[in-house]
Prior knowledge:
Blueprint (H helix, E strand, L loop, with lengths): L5 E3 L12 E3 L6 H11 L7 E3 L5 H6 L5 H11 L8 H4 L2 H12 L10 H26 L15 H17 L4 H20 L5 H25 L4 E3 L10 E16 L7 E14 L4 E14 L1 H7 L13 E19 L2 E12 L3 E2 L11 E2 L2 E15 L2 E17 L6 E17 L1
Parallel strand pairs: 3-4
Antiparallel strand pairs: 1-2, 5-6, 5-14, 6-7, 7-8, 8-9, 8-10, 9-12, 11-13, 12-13, 13-14
Amino acid sequence: MEYPDTLVCPSCKISETNSLDITKSDITNLEYLNEYKDFKMIGKTKDRRVLLLSGIPIFAASQLGNGKMIKNIRQTYFPNFNNHFDDYIQHIPLVTQLSLSLYGLKDVEGGKKFAEVMVADALSSSLMFCMVMCLKMSAKSERPDHSARNSFPSGHTATAFMGAQLLHNEYGEAYPWLSTGGYAVACLVGMGRILNNRHWVDDVLAGASIGMFSGELGYMLKDLIFKRKFNIEWFPSANLEPGMEYDFSFAYQWSELMNVYSNNDYQNTTALIFGLAYRTNDYFRFGLDTELRRDQFPYDVIRGSLKGYLDKKENPMPFIFKKLSLRAKAEYDFRMYKSLYGAASLGAGMVLPGKSLSLENSSNYLLKTKCVPSLQCSLGTFISITTNLRLSFYANLAYQQNKLDGVGENAKSIGSSFMLTTAFGITCR
């Protein structure tokens, strides 16, 4: 390896004539060279960024009014779900941060600051509790299970996301996987509150935004108390880095049906989507989506497609089918402004066989659908709230056929449809 004859330390404030020289003879092996590289970085630690508005996009999403749509999916797929894991794992991110700090794990600055961590956690917890309780008492929103009128916002989700934000603030730069794990646990808490029928999705999103905001604000107040330097960024700047990404989103689809036997030629679909993707660089990522679908068709459309197999009724209830869809996708992303990105994707997959829900139909007929292919193209935008958490909105246009199986001689076509989808999602990495 070739070494320069003279190496000058750029961080040392010494005049050029009296500069600190390290000659070639002083560097005898690679270990000394590595020590020199570390020496060059002394004094170059950046001030901590404070992202006070990081939770605002999530709070805005909580006002979209999708609560009943998500509850319908929950009632379709998990009507008897009752597991209170969310009561316990809500504390995991905060306990992890406190345990690592007490153990003495160094942050990105190489320091051990357990007292400062305790102050930040106490301030954040107090702020979060006050905001949650004030909103609960003022909103008086009824819970989905009708047990009380203190649904909005979700205190469990606020606690989990506050802990995840504090864990990210303390160790996110030095140990990104800790930050990713904290946000993943927080998202799991939010899903648990919905699955247990204790909260609307709006409550969960609002709780997440309050938790993130209180975590950032508490950490900023701690910095003021201990006279630490920080920079407030109202609109953060974040780059996309290669690695695995985990998506959770919900979507509403509306479509016109072609080749049907009624004037009520429409189809409504609500879906929960779980995705796994790998980002290769700033521009491309490839992944697989698993979609829990709830397709709703008018009674007359099903009756017409079966050519009189069902009786005509004056006030028929719609037929509702539950289905599982698998889709592979490729996505291209481009930066529009700082951490605001645009996205375009193409996907292809299969809608697996599904069945109707007899309890929600006006007849006792149990109908089944066939496995059909589906194609989808998407345009959307997302914002990187932190390096490990992103919020996205998509509009999808999809083509799909709908066929009944097991009725009459052969499979009957309900109709082909072009679906327009609006989707909201959260991505952890």
